[in-house]
Design brief:
CATH architecture of the largest domain: Alpha-Beta Barrel
Structural class: alpha/beta
Number of domains: 2
Shape: globular
CATH class of the largest domain: Alpha Beta
Number of strands: 22
Radius of gyration: 20 Å
Helix content: 10-25%
Length: 367
C-alpha cells in the first residue's frame, strides 16, 4: 500500500551489513566496507549506523525529479526517443575529483532533499508524464539501494521500465539484488588504470570490471558504457586501445561505448575542455578494435552521435544532439530492430517506432 507522504520517514532499515568482533558494524553494499560506530555515517554520507543497524537516511527523499530524453543518460539503444523520469538523492560512494554533479553527489546537507515521494507516487508520475522508464541518476543509486529497489518494483507493477546510471562499484551480493530489478544501465568506465581509480576516485578498477562481466554474462540488463575523457588523465591512445580491446574481448562487440567531453569542474579546474578531435580519436580506436557502436558525447558531432549498421554501414538512427533525425529500423514479430537496408538486427531494446520526445526537459514537482 502507498503510505501517506506525511508518514514517509527518511530513514529505512538497510540491508547488507554485519557486526564485527570489535563492536563496529560493517556496511556491505559497496567494496568500501565502511566500519561504523554508533552514530557514524559511511563515506557515502547517506548510509549510517543507528540503533545498532545500518539505515538509509534518504529513503523517499530526492534532490529533484525531471523528465529527460533517454539519450541523455546516455542510452542510445534502449527505447530511443522516449522520455525517462529521472531522479537522484544525495551523496556518493566514490570521491571523483572531476565530478560534474558534485552539488548533488557531494552534498552533506540533507535539507537540500526537498522532493519527497513514495515508490508508488514515482510510478504514477512516470505514467502521467508518458515516461517509458524511470532512471536512478544524478548520484549513484547503489548507495540508496533499498529505495531504488522499491521504486523499481512499483514501476514494474505499473509497466514502467527502470534504468540505473552507476559507476558499478558494488559488492556481489548487493549487486545481485540491485541489478535484478533494473532493465537497463549506463555504467561509468572512468578509465582503464588502477592509478586513475585510486588517485582520482578512491576506488578500484578491478571491482568495476567484475560488475561489467556480471552484467553481461549473468543478467539480462541492457547496458552501455560511458567514459568521461579527461585531458592528460585517461585520454592516451594506448589506454583507449587497452580499454576498448578489453571490452570487445570480455563483453563482446555489441556493448555501446560513449566517449564524452570533460569540462573543468569540482576539484579539477586546472584541466581544459576535451577537444572534439580527442573524442573522435577514441571512437575510431573503439571501432577499429571491434566495438560496433561507439559514440562521442557532450559535443555536437552528428556522425559520432548516430548509430550505423555494423553489417552494411548504413545509418539506422541519426541523432542531432538528443533529436532523432533518421530512423531506418524495421521490426519483426518480436520487436527487435533490424536495418532496413540489409535486415541485420541492431543490438538493444526496441519495441516499436522511435519516440518523439527530443531534447525537452520537464521538471516535476510532487504536491
Amino acid at each position: 500500500m502507498d503510505a501517506p507522504l506525511e508518514d514517509l520517514g527518511s530513514t529505512f532499515p538497510g540491508r547488507y551489513w554485519h557486526g564485527l568482533e570489535d563492536g563496529r558494524i560493517q556496511c556491505d553494499v559497496c567494496p568500501r566496507f565502511c566500519k561504523l560506530q554508533e552514530g557514524q555515517r559511511g563515506l557515502c554520507f547517506v548510509r549510517a549506523r543507528q540503533n545498532n543497524q545500518i539505515v538509509l537516511t534518504t529513503y523517499g527523499r530526492s534532490s529533484g525529479f525531471c523528465v529527460d530524453p533517454i539519450e541523455k543518460k546516455p542510452l542510445n539503444h534502449f527505447l530511443p526517443g522516449t522520455p525517462v523520469l529521472s531522479f537522484g538523492t544525495a551523496g556518493c560512494n566514490l570521491t571523483c575529483k572531476f565530478c560534474q554533479n558534485h552539488d548533488i553527489s557531494k552534498s552533506r546537507e540533507l535539507d537540500k532533499l526537498q522532493a519527497r515521494a513514495t515508490p508508488e507516487m514515482i510510478a504514477r508520475a512516470a505514467l502521467k508524464t508518458g515516461s517509458r522508464s524511470v532512471a536512478f541518476t544524478y548520484n549513484d543509486p547503489v548507495i540508496f539501494l533499498e529505495y531504488a529497489v522499491d521504486v523499481a518494483k512499483a514501476c514494474h507493477e505499473a509497466g514502467v521500465k527502470t534504468v540505473a546510471v552507476t559507476a558499478g562499484y558494488i559488492t556481489d551480493k548487493a549487486g545481485e539484488e540491485f541489478f535484478s530489478h533494473m532493465d537497463a544501465a549506463n555504467v561509468d568506465l572512468k578509465a582503464f588504470t588502477e592509478d586513475f581509480y585510486n588517485r582520482l576516485c578512491s576506488s578500484e578498477l578491478a571491482r568495476v570490471l567484475e560488475t561489467l562481466k556480471y552484467l553481461k554474462h549473468e543478467t539480462s540488463v541492457w547496458f552501455e558504457l560511458t567514459t568521461l575523457v579527461i585531458p592528460g588523465e585517461n585520454d592516451s591512445p594506448s589506454e583507449i586501445e587497452e580499454m576498448t580491446g578489453w571490452v570487445a574481448e570480455n563483453l563482446g562487440p555489441d556493448v555501446p561505448m560513449h566517449f564524452t567531453a570533460f569540462h573543468p569542474d569540482w576539484k579539477m579546474m586546472d584541466k581544459g575542455d576535451t577537444p572534439k578531435e580527442t573524442l573522435i580519436r577514441c571512437r575510431d580506436i573503439a571501432l577499429k578494435n571491434g566495438i560496433r557502436y561507439a559514440y562521442t558525447g557532450n559535443v555536437h558531432h552528428y556522425e559520432g552521435a548516430s548509430t550505423y549498421c555494423h553489417n552494411c554501414g548504413d545509418i539506422v538512427i541519426g541523432r542531432d544532439w538528443y533529436e532523432l533525425s533518421t530512423w531506418n529500423l524495421s521490426f519483426d514479430g518480436n520487436y527487435s530492430g533490424n536495418c532496413k537496408s540489409c535486415g541485420t538486427p541492431l543490438a538493444g531494446v526496441f519495441d516499436g517506432p522511435a519516440g518523439d520526445w527530443g531534447r525537452k526537459r520537464m521538471p516535476i514537482r510532487f504536491e
